[in-house]
């Protein structure tokens, strides 16, 4: 019999909502400014993002996540980050490029670590830098 993680997920969401603030994940637009020269990229990728997703999150200093894990990939993105966002969501955030904070700050995503003890994703740790 599989463990039902839905109550744990609900508790995680409730705690992050209570102590966090809304963070908007942005997948930048990639429509080229000149279709004949797509290698030049999009003219204004932020003005027409592919999609956005808003979720409550908590921002913490990377040093407070020293016990997050000993995996080299996790340590690399924590070392490159100036903030870590902790969000409780089942959404796959892999394709997002930036996080926009309610205070107007725009953060570049450095990497992710997912807490997923079973089939249910509980928390996502997102490495951020300016």
List the keywords.
single chain, 130 residues, alpha+beta, Thrombin, subunit H, six-stranded antiparallel beta barrel, 6 strands
Summary, kept brief:
The protein is α+β, with helices and mostly antiparallel strands and 130 residues long. It is built from two helices and six strands, in the order H-E-E-H-E-E-E-E. The longest helix has 14 residues, at 6-19.
Element layout with pairings:
Blueprint: H1 6-19, E1 21-27, E2 51-60, H2 72-80, E3 83-87, E4 98-101, E5 106-115, E6 123-129
- Largest sheet, strands/sense/barrel: 6 strands, antiparallel, barrel
Radius of gyration: 16 Å
Number of domains: 1
Oligomer: single chain
Task: Give the second-level CATH assignment, the architecture.
Answer: Beta Barrel
Q: Number of helical runs? A: 2
Give the class from helix and strand content and strand pairing.
alpha+beta
Q: Using the coordinates shown, work out and report the CATH topology.
A: Thrombin, subunit H
Low-confidence blocks of residues: none
The overall pLDDT, averaged over residues, is: 83
Beta strand %:
25-35%
Total strands: 6
Shape descriptor reads globular
What is the element string, with H for helices and E for strands? HEEHEEEE
> Tell me, what is the CATH class?
Mainly Beta
Rounded to the nearest angstrom, the distance between the terminal CA atoms is 45 Å
Read across the widest sheet, the strand sequence of neighbours is 1-2-3-6-5-4
Helix content: 10-25%
């Amino acid at each position: 019999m599989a463990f039902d993680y839905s109550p744990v997920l609900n508790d995680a969401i409730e705690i992050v909502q209570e102590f966090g603030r809304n963070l908007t994940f942005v997948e930048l637009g990639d429509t080229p400014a000149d279709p004949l020269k797509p290698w030049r990229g999009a003219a204004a990728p932020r003005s027409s993002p592919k999609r956005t997703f808003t979720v409550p999150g908590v921002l913490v200093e990377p040093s407070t996540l020293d016990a997050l894990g000993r995996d080299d990939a996790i340590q690399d993105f924590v070392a490159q980050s100036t903030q870590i966002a902790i969000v409780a969501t089942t959404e796959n955030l892999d394709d997002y490029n930036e996080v926009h904070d309610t205070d107007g700050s725009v953060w570049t995503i450095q990497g992710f670590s997912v807490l997923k003890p079973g089939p249910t994703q509980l928390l996502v740790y997102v490495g951020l830098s300016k």
